[in-house]
Amino acid sequence: MTAQYLLYEHIMMEFFRHLFKEDKMIRIDDDRCVRCGICVKECRNNVLAMVNDEKGLHVGVVHPENCSHCTHCVDSCSFKAISFSGETSKGRGKELAGIR
Ligand code: SF4
Ligand code: SF4
User: Fold this and answer.
1) Interval between CA 86 and ligand 1 midpoint (Å)
2) How far does residue 49's CA lie from ligand 2's centre (Å)?
3) Which long-range contacts (CB under 8 A, 24 or more apart) does 37-44 make?
4) 75 C-alpha to ligand 2 centroid (Å)
5) What is the pTM of this model?
6) What phi and psi values does residue 67 have, to the nearest 5 degrees?
7) What is the 3-state secondary structure (H, E, C) of 57-99?
8) Ligand 2 binding pocket, CB closer than 6 Å
């Protein structure tokens, strides 16, 4: 195996890893969520916020475009209420605010 092949393989793996990561969007399962607010405090990018609307008090994904996919919120939730969906967040920004 040549060095050039290994470099090519590395570049392709990084490309697909980045593509996969970018296509994931944070989602909150309101049936599991107990509204403790810990994930909101854990998110340094202000992606999440407690929202009180027609659905009642819940965690809203208010700035999905800022998500760095660090998974701190996922790790902080003891109720496994946070996951990444396969939907893309590219270009949709605030339109997705409050999505479940
Ligand atoms: S940490 Fe989990 S249970 Fe608490 S508000 Fe966030 S999603 Fe809901
Ligand atoms: S993955 Fe990181 S940046 Fe994205 S919402 Fe969770 S804590 Fe915030």
Assistant:
1) 20
2) 11
3) 38/76, 38/77, 39/73, 39/76, 39/77, 39/82, 42/72, 42/73, 42/76, 43/72, 43/73, 44/70, 44/72
4) 10
5) 0.69
6) -70, 125
7) EEEEECCHHHCCCCCHHHHHCCCCCEEEECCCCCCCHHHHCCC
8) 26, 42-43, 45, 47-48, 67-73
Of 65, 35, 68, 67, residue with least CA distance to 52: 35
pLDDT of the chain along its 100 residues, tens only?
688 888 888 777 666 655 555 557 899 999 999 999 999 999 999 999 999 999 999 999 999 989 998 999 999 999 999 998 765 444 333 334 344 3
Q: Determine the Cα–Cα distance for residues 52 and 17; give it in Å rounded to an integer.
A: 36
**CATH code (residue 57):** 3.30.70.20
In total, how many domains does the chain have?
Answer: 1
Quickly tell me which residue has 């392709």 as its tokens: 12
Give the residue numbers spanning the domain of 51. 3-96
